[in-house]
């Protein structure tokens, strides 16, 4: 029995939730019929056998989050959307973008290739007072409204906040 216990301990230490560090358990079984292998979770088999055989695209979840407890009364059918909301509500997920180091990403990724430089100009003379690499940067530095700057830069408005705005060619 000791060898079996060591096996599960090693398995659980490998399968941990990245955010909480808690072990994640989903008991699985492999069945075959006519030489075709089917990998299923035990909770899905139990739910199909004792509650409803036709599950469709539904996901079977353990109500208490304990993957070892696959009793019928501890199982519930949910959609993928409900499962995702539950993961977020329990704070068991971290967005990979939230922790990614973006400093080495090329600037053509993520919409940077679509940004246009914009200039804030004197209304009377048309002289360029300041140039920003993008509308978003102009909004960050000035604190003014993005949509209004865009409308002025496109020429739909003659000015915004007392300045003329125009798109400039990238240097």
UniProtKB/TrEMBL annotation:
SUPFAM superfamilies, per the entry: DNA-binding domain of intron-encoded endonucleases, His-Me finger endonucleases
Gene3D superfamilies per the UniProt record, alphabetical: 3.90.75.20, Winged helix-like DNA-binding domain superfamily/Winged helix DNA-binding domain
Domain of life: Bacteria
Identification of the protein by name: HNH endonuclease
Organism (species): Hymenobacter saemangeumensis
